[in-house]
From TrEMBL:
Keywords: Endoplasmic reticulum, Hydrolase, Lipid metabolism, Membrane, Nucleus, Phosphoprotein, Transmembrane, Transmembrane helix
CDD domains cross-referenced by the UniProt entry: PAP2_containing_2_like
Organism taxonomic ancestry: Eukaryota, Metazoa, Chordata, Craniata, Vertebrata
Protein name per Swiss-Prot or TrEMBL: Polyisoprenoid diphosphate/phosphate phosphohydrolase PLPP6
BP term (GO), one: lipid metabolic process
Location, primary (coarse class): endoplasmic reticulum
Pfam families, alphabetized: PAP2 (PF01569)
One GO location term (cellular component): nuclear inner membrane
Broadest EC class assigned to this enzyme: hydrolase
Primary gene name: LOC105239822
Amino acid sequence: MPSPRRNADRRTLAASASSSSGPGSPAHGGGGGGRFEFQSLLSSRAPGADPTCARLRASESPVHRRGSFPLAGAGPSQAPPGPLPEEDRLDLNPSFLGIALRSLLAIDLWLSKKLGVCAGENSSWGSMRPLMKLLEISGHGIPWLLGTLYCLYRSDSWAGREVLMNLLFALLLDLLLVALIKGLVRRRRPAHNQMDMFVTLSVDKYSFPSGHATRAALVSRFILNHLVLAIPLRVLVVLWAFIVGFSRVMLGRHNVTDVAFGFFLGYTQYSIVDYCWLSPHNARVLFVLWNQQ
């Protein structure tokens, strides 16, 4: 039969062992809580375990609170952000062509403003505006169309009618192409321009290309190729074309590139007219109808 003292010692040892194996025992360094959470996670993976309880236990884990691994059932807000769209990205390496075009545009605007010495009455050459506007009228399309129609009506020779018919065709082609390009490009006129033009149409609020420059280049090349003129008169025709184009910049109507492209377009238009030359052989019906009038 055991003694009462021995039974008391056994109860004291059992109590000390149970207290040392508790969850917050310093002897184990607080590791009992970790084993409890690990066992709870294992029990959540067991067959037949409640998934809601498993997620709650996992969310209470200190590992999850530190964000060491993503939660399998996380919502859309936990998804990583996608790539930015193209329009929101900063282009740090622009192309050489883009830089060249921007530089050319800046030079064009600066030079056009410097050369617009007749843009207003208070400009440095404001007193020259009447002469510049006279040159503007000399290169306008309406006087050239009306003059060509009148000469075609008064002509009594087939050779003269052939030349005038093709000049009329060239003027109509010029109006069509210039209006088409202006409607496509839609470049505004210079800011220092005063809209006091001779006659304006809907497309005349746009600047690129210069219709006066295209018409001057077209008409001057047409005259030099189909009229017999002395050398001084031929020089005057070329000078008239260049002065008409330059006056557009001086009046502030156009930029320098508008006039330069206008000269190129007018020179090219004559090549089109010369290739599609209208004559009694390939446009007999047109000449017969005009002769009956």
